[in-house]
Write a structure and sequence with these properties.
46% of the residues lie in helices and 13% in strands. It is of the alpha+beta class.
């Protein structure tokens, strides 16, 4: 009995530590997104499934600017839209997009939805696809799903269910026609790394398109070779994926500039 109680206590402690770290990382993502100019006033949404729970996710109260977000400010919002912990207003479109994705595609623990300018500009084109014109762009070719049907503001969970069906468990980036993007990951670090490089890829592609000159497409066999390298050969330095190194570096920048995000 004593041993069982000790195991349970350790498990609870581990979950509490994971929840604390999750809050810190999600707060960091909001602040870093301001640094990178990925924010849009008090709108757009960055969410994360609550570690150790299967019925809720973290969301900021409506009305906060992302520069104000701290680890303690998050509400725990149930997949039915109820506030289960914390206090504040649940922004409707955040719930209608994110709750269904978290519920239906649990592989996507972190869901970052933004209207960041370059990706959103591509989403407004008749042909929004990322093209195989450089190695950063190629790295996204097997990760992107495209929604070609804008249906208006997402104010019904059925819209989130539709989007969840498009992105599924095997894609991590959703281009939302006439709207923006949703980027997903198993952790905040993975999702934010993808968000950052997606915007860079979109920026470079648009710059290349704006020259009016013909784009140099990478040959299909080299595209396939490059994707295989990303999937099978790309090293993990220090037994950590590169996206974790990237996010750790961004948090160190934030520690120097805005250390209150961990509060």
């Amino acid at each position: 009995m004593t041993l069982l109680a000790l195991d349970t206590q350790d498990l609870d402690s581990d979950i509490a530590a994971a929840q604390r770290q999750a809050r810190i990382d999600l707060a960091a993502a909001h602040r870093i997104a301001v640094m990178h100019d990925f924010h849009e006033g008090i709108f757009n949404h960055l969410t994360l499934a609550v570690p150790g729970r299967t019925d809720r996710y973290y969301q900021i109260p409506f009305g906060l600017h992302w520069s104000e977000v701290t680890a303690s400010c998050f509400m725990e919002v149930g997949y039915d839209g109820r506030v289960l912990a914390g206090s504040g207003e649940v922004e409707r479109s955040a719930f209608c997009i994110h709750a269904p994705i978290h519920r239906l595609v649990p592989e996507h623990a972190c869901v970052l939805h933004t209207h960041m300018p370059y990706a959103s500009a591509l989403a407004r084109l008749e042909e929004p696809e990322i093209q195989a014109i450089g190695q950063t762009e190629i790295g996204f070719l097997d990760k992107i799903a495209y929604d070609h049907d804008y249906t208006g503001p997402a104010l019904d969970p059925a819209e989130g269910e539709r989007l969840a069906g498009i992105i599924g468990p095997d894609r991590k980036v959703l281009f939302m026609a006439n709207h923006g993007v949703a980027v997903c990951g198993t952790t905040v670090a993975e999702a934010y790394d993808l968000l950052y490089y997606l915007e860079r890829a979109c920026q470079v592609q648009l710059y290349a398109m704006w020259t009016g000159r013909k784009l140099r497409q990478v040959r299909p066999e080299i595209v396939s070779h490059t994707l295989n390298q990303y999937q099978d050969v790309w090293p993990n330095y220090g037994n950590k994926p590169t996206w974790q190194h990237h996010f750790d570096a961004l948090k160190r920048m934030l520690d120097r500039r805005e250390p209150d995000y961990i509060d």
